[in-house]
Amino acid sequence: MSPMVEDIHCDVLLHRMEAFIDDDVTADESAAIKRHLEHCDACAKELEHALRTLAALRALPELDVPDRVIENARAAIRRQGPAESSASRTNTRRRWLAAAAAIVIGIIGTVAVVQDRTESTDPDALRAVAEVRFALATIGEISERANRIVRARIIDDGPIPQSFRGLARSLGPLASLQTTDGPHAAPYEPTHEGNS
Amino acid sequence: MTRDFFDAAAQRHSRRVHTFASYLLGDSSEAEDITQEVLIKLWNRGHQVEPDRLGAWLLTVTRNACTDVLRRRQRVSKVIPIRRDVEFHTDPPSPEPSPESRAVGSQLGTHILEALNRLNEPARSVVILREVQGLSYREIAEILQMHMSTLKVTLHRARRKLRESLKEVDTHVANG
User: Fold this and answer.
1) Which of B24, B100, B160, B169 to mutate to test the interface with A (most CBs of A within 10 A)?
2) pTM of the entire structure?
């Protein structure tokens, strides 16, 4: 391979070959590359190889989806049933949030009360604080999503008094909440079972 | 989302989703699972997406699901070898190559799959979406959340890497 032919170096051409194939080079660069290819067999062969590789890549076929995949998806959607509809999910979430709110408020409230008593080094109060702190730490063990909801909906935006938020921070860094549920017209009931 | 809309969207997009997952994972069985998972997400969340963005959104969801699979594989790769068993159904290739290049393509096909599997992400996704599935740069940039300039550089580097990987095989093919 000659190192320099007609204004452009082989290394440069090899580096720019894909852009040249895609016609993603300037007119001047394209002309320089073409001039180089006329005189450099090695680069011309490299271009042929690049074009064959690209042709092989573009000849890879689109793949059919087996019928069972779509049927399985439909079956899974049917199994979600009405319980997975938006209204049901919202009601379930509200009930869960209400219960979680009660628990968290109760725990944090208890901590606030017993912390005042700990100043007198009352052993019962100290034990109570330890137990409540353990309970708070346990909240961190619930599922990640539930954890985020408790923190975002109840502690961040909820009815926790400002003075208790320092305790709430012991739950760890707060994560942003992203819900993905939305309205559904109805559970999936395909009209034609065998239709793919 | 109505069931008619779901059926129409599944009909229209599932093949593209399945093809993308199959080549990205190099495993048709896992690709079927991903396709099924994506269709369920289409039903659950497709109504939140603008209709003209649905195809791109589905491919983004597909890519994210495949990325999770690839990450899990990396964690267990020392004990479980990566499989490469993409099945070829007899369908016409996407662009229309000449008979000559198609013949060359079929000879290089298996080696191309192996070389694809050696590409890292996002290079592998870029090559599949652009060269195998024929998507525009704009569509790919949206699906992969990449700038156009980064996308082109990634594509060209990946093709150069494929070219290097296949040089020895191609020399045998070219010499007959």
Assistant:
1) B160
2) 0.64
